[in-house]
């Protein structure tokens, strides 16, 4: 019995040593979602919004849905106002207002930076996911547009006005770009994702 306990303890000791060397513990700092502009009142409103959303999933009342949507809009506006007031207060108390303003802008841009990536594109009715193919397709399209302008043979309808010629060339392009509707919010996100160069 004693020999069996010693051998099992020895086995467990060897097993644990191998396990701990193979899978060492790693310290990882938790990233806190620290938003100092969220007041207690706003936090309570966010909790209410979550409760209403859970209720809305099983509710078919259209008036409650309208109330929820209105509540969300007011809450979003309140959060934006609270955020603006927080940053305004920070900037007004700062001794170096310009530096702090740029630090705030960089912080906001970095948070949004990873959200605007093209992952797929449709080329000749085929969905392409390979980033190299997407890049090359854009390059070849835009280089071919300039090539068509330069090498198009002159016809009898040639006009001396360069603006007229340019606009008429755009109307006669074989390759068609399809533009989807966009919003000001989307444009702002793209602008904010641009890297600032010195």
Q: Helices, strands, pairings?
A:
Blueprint: H1 2-22, H2 40-57, H3 62-93, H4 97-112, E1 121-123, E2 126-128, H5 131-151, H6 162-171, H7 184-193
Antiparallel strand pairs: 1-2
What structural keywords apply?
3% strand, 198 residues, extended, two-stranded antiparallel ribbon
Task: Summarize the entry for a quick read.
Helix content is 65%, strand content 3%.
How would you characterize the overall build of this protein?
- The protein has 198 residues and is mainly alpha-helical.
- It has seven helices and two strands, in the order H-H-H-H-E-E-H-H-H.
- The protein has helices at 2-22, 40-57, 62-93, 97-112, 131-151, 162-171, 184-193; strands at residues 121-123, 126-128.
- The chain has a two-stranded antiparallel ribbon.
- Helix 2 (40-57) runs antiparallel to helix 3 (62-93).
- The chain is extended, with a radius of gyration of 30 Å.
- The mean pLDDT is 77.
Q: In DSSP terms, counting alpha (H) and pi (I) runs of 4 or more, how many helices?
A: 7
Distance between the termini: 76 Å
Which stretches of 5+ consecutive residues score pLDDT under 50? none
How much helix, percentage-wise, in residues?
A: 55-70%
Query: Radius of gyration from the CA trace?
Result: 30 Å
Give me the side-by-side strand order of the main sheet: 1-2
Globular, elongated, flat, extended or rod-shaped: what is the shape?
A: extended
Category by helix and strand content: mainly alpha
Major sheet: 2 strands, antiparallel
E-strand count: 2
- Oligomer state equals single chain
Proportion of beta-strand residues = under 5%
Q: In sequence order, what are the helices and strands, one letter per element?
A: HHHHEEHHH
Mean pLDDT: 77
